[in-house]
Amino acid sequence: MILQDLLDPTLDASSKGYPHHAQPMRRSEIGAQGWNVLRGDLPLPVAVIRRDALAGNLKWMQEFAAGRGVGLAPHGKTTMSPQLFRKQLDAGAWGLTFATVGQLRAGVTAGAKRCLIANQVFRSVDLQGIADLKRAHGGLRIAFLVDSLAQLELIEGWHVAQQGVEPFEVLLELGLDGGRTGCRTHEQALALAQRLRSGKATKLVGIECYEGLGATGDSGKDTAYADALMQRVRDIAKACDEQQLFETGEILLTAGGSAIFDLVADHLKLQLSRPVQGLLRSGCYVTHDHGTYHRFMNAVATRMGCGHGLHAAMEVWAAVQSCPEPGLAILTVGKRDISYDLELPLPIAFVKPGSENLTPAPTDWTIGGLNDQHAYLRGTGPEHQALRVGDLVALGISHPCTTFDKWRWMPVVDDQYNVRDAIVTCF
Amino acid sequence: MILQDLLDPTLDASSKGYPHHAQPMRRSEIGAQGWNVLRGDLPLPVAVIRRDALAGNLKWMQEFAAGRGVGLAPHGKTTMSPQLFRKQLDAGAWGLTFATVGQLRAGVTAGAKRCLIANQVFRSVDLQGIADLKRAHGGLRIAFLVDSLAQLELIEGWHVAQQGVEPFEVLLELGLDGGRTGCRTHEQALALAQRLRSGKATKLVGIECYEGLGATGDSGKDTAYADALMQRVRDIAKACDEQQLFETGEILLTAGGSAIFDLVADHLKLQLSRPVQGLLRSGCYVTHDHGTYHRFMNAVATRMGCGHGLHAAMEVWAAVQSCPEPGLAILTVGKRDISYDLELPLPIAFVKPGSENLTPAPTDWTIGGLNDQHAYLRGTGPEHQALRVGDLVALGISHPCTTFDKWRWMPVVDDQYNVRDAIVTCF
Fold first, then answer.
1. A184 to chain B nearest CA, in Å?
2. Contact B99, B126 (CB under 8 A)
3. Which of A82, B119, B257, B404 pairs with A251 at a CA distance of 20 to 30 A?
4. How confident is the model at residue B356 (pLDDT cuts 50, 70, 90)?
5. Structural domain total, chain A
6. Which residue of A has its CA nearest to B400?
């Protein structure tokens, strides 16, 4: 797909899930074809996005951020879908977050004006890519992470050899002992901030951390953990502000994945010498899921003392292709099609061919394993015994990111599984 | 990418690994750009295919099959790359194997004339897809698997409602107790073959099984297992031949993944009342790997009493982005970029920026974990202590399939990592 054409590319049967018989057409034409998943119009497996759940998720998360007085810069790596980027921006997102300059380019092409790269940037090819994008898009803001002097020296080495490249906006990353990237101590972070202030290649515009890897689902533990981490973020922000190390009119404070974002949001508001913009970077909320994030959100809801408004919007549909032994049905879906990194897929519903009546999957059904192109649906009860070749089974997912990256397009369906729209991805 | 244009599509920076600054261009133009991975011309991570190893693998596997007197129908699901399909056909493959009708379409578009679908087909949309392809491509042969009466009845139900659709060529699948698809017993298989003979929707053209899921790497066990399974294949082939259940001039006998194909190859030769074409369906051999298949092939080489000619042809390159603690370097590569289903990636080499001298990765280096966009490179020795932000690290893979499906294009490089060619994928 061509970058200029990301919003409405031409699709065809070279992408799985696209009907074999359908002519190539623009993405925007798909919703008018009258296709229905349950009626058998699409080859299986197919990953679908439920329209109403998606719309609800976009709205709820944006309202959550607004209600806490922070902005939302959804992480685009989850979906890498220009259509979903647009929906997130239209819903009121402050901007978008990415992990790489390549992802950033897709986001800017889709219309993002304010972008975070929640990752270290240091290679010439990537620094040049950012400089080129800013030159091509007037007013575009891009801030990336810095966590070491070694990284800064690479940036400075590249910058000094250029003519007229603006300083890069950077966020100082705080990390945790035993964690991933980020300065481990206040002293390291402050020393790096001072060094940033004295250089010409960068401007310090804020502080960043990522709390998601330490989330457990235990509210007591998670609250103590988030409080301690965010206190460190606030302390370094205050110290940088007192020493006038920020070179920006508005200081960015950012944290927040999709697991315990409620525990960090309030900490992103802070009184400093100039305005502070708090930013959550949640990505998985957009489709939510049936597993890991479902459980994390149950804990969020308990902490909030009310329900939450996220609903699982992504399902992968497959057919029973063989019932070779009692208790075992083989489905036409596998590792190439659905997430398996956090846990195996979860059976959620089934339907007999010719029917449009979904039956919720019985609790005895489990996916016992995946091969590249097959899933092992095991069960003990009468509904499993009644499964036949051709029956359709819907699987829920755990971790949206690793299902998104297995599909180049996905139909967007209504509650009757009519295909009403389509999105594409650009991994 | 448009189906008609699979062999030479236009690529651009919407696909990761493509240089940000490069204009969109045809795949075939990439080899002339003078890009070099070590020199930093490509953003990282990037998955590369080593040209000479690829060429050697294509040749060795084809010669292996010829030496055993069987044909090769490489499984296309591994790569889903029209360029690699062409190379496999040009190397002498009998045809290609696929898992779905969607995959098949890409293979036929790439030039395959004889195709196996090593999977059950039964849905109307897929049966119609096969019929349409055969109508559009004179002389195209497509055979798929049948393992149950329920499946056959769905095929017959669709076929009887059509006008003038030729019977489908089908292979009877034999399976194993506790296994995946396939008839569990000789009696089941023979009864199904008899039923196939009496129907008008199908023609039985051969027998299929898949042994790969039961491979252990222990030659004694694997030999006994393969012998027993293949004896069942031969027995049912003989029984079907005696009862004149085959409706074909040439009977196909097919098995063989990339793990213990040497143990099934000889069993695919059989004297029946008409010619028998044995077919191996190995897929992963084309790039081989540094993990699972590397170990399986060591066992194959020991059994053969000589070396084997497969070499790991796929590597994923990343950069060190942070060295936040002693013993830990964070790399710019994650679950979205590299296989992790059979085991985590394996560090194989590193290079300092500005150098073109690769150093083999020390044995103390391991990838301790992956996030979506990050890898944790751990080590204890002096080379790990000397790692700096910006250093390049090459990772080997275990299981080619699940790295291929994370990339839309891959550069093909020479031994100096000059980009000499490119392939695309169409998952």
1. 7
2. no
3. A82
4. confident
5. 2
6. A372
CA atoms within 13 A on the CB side of A346: 16
Q: Measured between CB atoms, does A304 come within 8 Å of chain B?
A: no
Residues A399 and A329 in one domain: yes
The tokens 């960043």 sit on which residue? A208
pLDDT in tens, B216-275: 999 999 999 999 999 999 999 999 999 999 999 999 999 999 999 999 999 999 999 999
**Which DSSP helix (H) or strand (E) runs through B394?**
strand B392-396
B294 & B145 share domain? yes
Which residues in A lie closer than 8 A to residue B341 (C-beta atoms)? 335, 340
**Which of B105, B137, B376, B389 would best serve as a mutation to test chain A binding (most A beta carbons within 10 A)?**
B389
Structural domain boundaries enclosing A87 = 51-304
Domain shared by A353 and A204, yes or no = no
Render pLDDT for A362-418 as a digit per residue (tens, 0 to 9): 999 999 999 999 999 999 999 999 999 999 999 999 999 999 999 999 999 999 999
> Residue A76, SS3?
coil
pLDDT of residue A307: 85
Both B389 and B349 in a single domain? yes
Mean pLDDT rounded to a whole number for chain A: 97
Q: Does A292 touch chain B (CB under 8 A)?
A: no
Q: Note whether B297 and B335 are same-domain residues.
A: no
Whether A119 sits inside 8 A of B321 (CB atoms) is yes
* Final residue of a structural domain among A304, A339, A357: A304
Query: How many angstroms separate the Cα of A400 from the Cα of each of A59, A283, A287, A333, A338?
Result: 18, 9, 7, 16, 9
Cβ-Cβ contacts under 8 Å for A215 (sequence gap 6 or more): A222, A225, A257, A259, A260, A296
Residues A26 and A64 in one domain: no
pLDDT of residue A1: 58
DSSP state of B364: T
Question: Which residues, in sequence order, are CB contacts of B325 under 8 Å at separation 6+?
Answer: A177, A178, A184
Q: What is the CATH number of the domain that holds A367?
A: 2.40.37.20
| Contact A215/B at CB under 8 A | no
Which pair of tokens denotes residue B384? 């790990």
Q: ipTM value of the model?
A: 0.97
Residue that has been written with the tokens 């695309």 in this structure: B424
Can you say whether the dihedral through the CA atoms of A373, A377, A378, A382 is positive or negative? negative
Residues A414 and A272 reside in one and the same domain: no
Domain finish residue from A280, A304, A328? A304
Q: How far apart are CA A215 and CA A204, in angstroms?
A: 28
Reduce the DSSP state of residue B71 to 3 states and report it.
strand
Mark whether B228 and B126 lie in a shared domain. Answer: yes
Distance CA A372, CA A407 (A): 14
How far does A239 lie from chain B, in Å, by closest CA?
22
Q: What stretch of H or E contains A121?
A: none
| Contacts with A257 (C-beta within 8 Å, 6 or more apart), sequence order | A75, A210, A211, A212, A215, A281, A282, A283, A284
Report the CATH number at residue A285: 3.20.20.10
**pTM of the predicted model, to two decimals?**
0.97
